[in-house]
Amino acid sequence: MKVQQILDRKLKSEILAVSPDTSVYSALEALEKHNIGALLVMEGDKLVGIFSERDYARRGILKGKFSRESFVKDLMTSPVFTVSPQAKIEECLTIMTEKHFRHLPVVDGEKVLGMISSTDLFRSILSQYQNLVSSLEGYISGRPM
């Protein structure tokens, strides 16, 4: 399965992003409102970073930078590691594991298509295995597939 298939299945097609000059507090409110763990950081149509709960915990809280007094540009991860919509799920899991990422922006050239999370990948893999088990059960019991 490829990343594009995950993007197609996601309910929200809206790209959730903030600007580098957004207050950390506002970014945290957006994370909470949308029940997500990271936001893309964009300057116009250009991806310039990613801001996550982990960024705030490690670069904000632990360094005494408070959310109302800090800006996303001060805590975001940049440069950003991205994947293409044609990347395989296995490749994404390898990247996330090796680099300790939980989110990967998906880009086609310079165009931002969305973002996938480790949860998106796990759900996709679980679905594949459930389908495989169902098919094998049908095969073993003699039911048509």
UniProtKB/TrEMBL annotation:
Domain of life: Bacteria
InterPro entries from the UniProt entry: CBS_dom (IPR000644), CBS_dom_sf (IPR046342), CBSX3_CBS_dom (IPR044725), Diverse_CBS-Domain (IPR051257)
CBS domain segment(s): 11-70, 76-132
Keywords: CBS domain
SUPFAM superfamilies found in the cross-reference section: CBS-domain pair
Alphabetical list of SMART domains matching this protein: CBS
Gene3D superfamilies, A to Z: CBS-domain
Entry protein name: CBS domain containing protein
Species: Haliscomenobacter hydrossis (strain ATCC 27775 / DSM 1100 / LMG 10767 / O)
Lineage: Bacteria, Pseudomonadati, Bacteroidota, Saprospiria, Saprospirales
